[in-house]
Amino acid sequence: MSAVTARDVLWYIPNQIGYVRVVTMCLSLVLMAKHPLWTMVVYGVSCLLDALDGTMARKYGQISSFGAVLDMVTDRSTTTALICFLCVAYPVWSPVFQLLVALDISSHYIHMYATLSTGSQSHKAIEKEQWLLNLYYTRRKVLFTICALNEMFYMGLYINAFPQFKSYYFPLLGSTHIGAIIALVCLPGYIFKQIANVVQLNRAALMLANKDAAEATERRSAKKN
């Protein structure tokens, strides 16, 4: 049986799906300012493919570190690209959006770096004591639902920036744009995702600090001996 080459890994089926997601992200950037309907279609395809690549990786035994990093980087890039548009559409809220981008990127980067540097095989391997992250990462339906609600929340805000979409009347809310309704419905899942980001950032920081402390202790012991 021939050895697996780097080229083979780059062309794993789940990684090919990841490349398609990169293309859909680039296409959404071109469409975003003037073609909201097409943007929603392209963005929706990207989100669906995000759920598919992991399934294909497990089905064909094509799990790879490259694929995990590609998936996470594409997720962060796609969401950040949309938030960049929201900063333009809602300039008053730009500082909040910028803070959320910083939290999202930093928490995921530190989390992945910490898990890889401490020898963990997957950034989704979370101990049961971290119940919120364990629930988020080990239950596929929970992970998919929360990620979908997070993206739909931002997409609702995106739609809300285009007045040509319908508004609906609600007794307590009055005439409300369909985008605002979508964002409101998805808000609980969105809040869960932001809390998970904070918890993830804290856990990863402690993992790295514990690793550094253990190495520092080992160096001190070596000097004494």
TrEMBL record:
Top-level class of the enzyme under EC nomenclature = transferase
User: Could you tell me the keywords of this UniProt record?
Assistant: Endoplasmic reticulum, Lipid biosynthesis, Lipid metabolism, Magnesium, Manganese, Membrane, Metal-binding, Phospholipid biosynthesis, Phospholipid metabolism, Transferase, Transmembrane, Transmembrane helix
Record's signal peptide: none
The Swiss-Prot or TrEMBL record lists the needed cofactor(s) as: Mn(2+); Mg(2+)
The record's PROSITE patterns line, in alphabetical order, gives: CDP_ALCOHOL_P_TRANSF
Residue ranges annotated as transmembrane are: 12-33, 80-103, 142-162, 168-192
Looking up InterPro entries in the UniProt record yields:
CDP-OH_P_trans, CDP-OH_PTrfase_TM_dom, CDP_ALCOHOL_P_TRANSF_CS, CDP_diag_ino_3_P_euk
Q: Name one GO cellular component term.
A: Golgi apparatus
Q: Which reaction does it catalyse?
A: a CDP-1,2-diacyl-sn-glycerol + myo-inositol = a 1,2-diacyl-sn-glycero-3-phospho-(1D-myo-inositol) + CMP + H(+)
Q: Which compartment or compartments is the protein found in?
A: Endoplasmic reticulum membrane
Tell me the domain of life.
Eukaryota
One Gene Ontology biological process: phosphatidylinositol biosynthetic process
Topology versus the membrane, per the UniProt entry? Multi-pass membrane protein
Q: Provide the E.C. number(s) assigned to this enzyme.
A: 2.7.8.11
Family in the record: Belongs to the CDP-alcohol phosphatidyltransferase class-I family.
Name by which UniProt lists this protein: CDP-diacylglycerol--inositol 3-phosphatidyltransferase
Q: Which organism is it from?
A: Kluyveromyces lactis (strain ATCC 8585 / CBS 2359 / DSM 70799 / NBRC 1267 / NRRL Y-1140 / WM37)
Taxonomic classification, please? Answer: Eukaryota, Fungi, Dikarya, Ascomycota, Saccharomycotina
